[in-house]
Amino acid sequence: MSDLTRFHGVLPAFYACYDEKGNISPERVRALTRYLVDAGVKGTYVCGSSGECIYQSKEERKLVLENVMAEAKGRLTVIAHVACNNTADSMELAAHAESLGVDAIASIPPIYFHLPEYGIAKYWNDISSAAPHTDFIIYNIPQLAGVALSVDLFKEMRKNPRVIGVKNSSMPVQDIQMFKDAGGENSIVFNGPDEQFISGRMMGAQGAIGGTFAVMPKLFLAANEAFCGGDFAKAQKIQYDIDRIIYAMCACKGNLYAVMKEILRKNNHLDIGSVRAPLTPLCEGDMPQVERCAKMICDAMKKYC
Known about the structure:
Elements (H helix, E strand, L loop, with lengths): L8 E4 L13 H14 L3 E4 L11 H15 L4 E5 L5 H14 L3 E4 L9 H13 L5 E6 L1 H4 L5 H7 L5 E6 L5 H10 L4 E4 L5 H7 L3 E4 L6 H12 L3 H19 L5 H13 L18 H18 L1
Parallel strand pairs: 1-8, 2-3, 3-4, 4-5, 5-6, 6-7, 7-8
Helix pairs in contact: 1-2, 2-3, 3-4, 6-7, 8-9, 9-10, 10-12, 11-12
């Protein structure tokens, strides 16, 4: 049986790191990796939605993962999202991830065409076959993928011994319980929506992977510590402040990831570039709100960290 404790806790989704020309910057990938190590988080989820994978080539995604692994050096649990819009490319990324020694690979279902569940299962099992010694995590994000993971499909996938659980980014928190029941004891469910981090943990998620974790990792670590210590009132207060920050960041016209990258630049002196088109960069009118969000994070950290 796989040791699932290495997946427990707070695992920020890794942001795309670009240079001034919009190309992947290995140096900035390494800098963000060091920042996460120093923050004390459990691990990171690489080349997922927050990593803008849908707008990157296979070669770029390989470059990102190679530099994360070279810098992490066993100090972070690394999950590599390897899904592409065709099976062959996904299998190539899975094999590459296994060659680097990642802790797990992950995949959304095929997008655009709505495949039957047996077709989705074959896609995932084919990907897993390219990394036969690596754990596999299903990424359930129906609001973006257009396909929701059903309990029956999850049970079918659990016949593959490498399939250990679900990164659940669907909004109904009760989905966590359904997947925990379906997966059994030797499985793991990650909470996905950051706004329900504590409610997801309360529902039984052993770990959490989130797109806003990296811009305020200490707050999520403080919320998790309060939860694990049984101080649910404090955990709720931190969650409320986290949510207010998320709502404020989403009030900008620029893409949320562009907002968070600018906050990292202001609060942490960490420059990882902007976002890749067609994602929208910050506009000049966003800057007062970005400044407000950066201050909200600093103020919350003074309260809880």
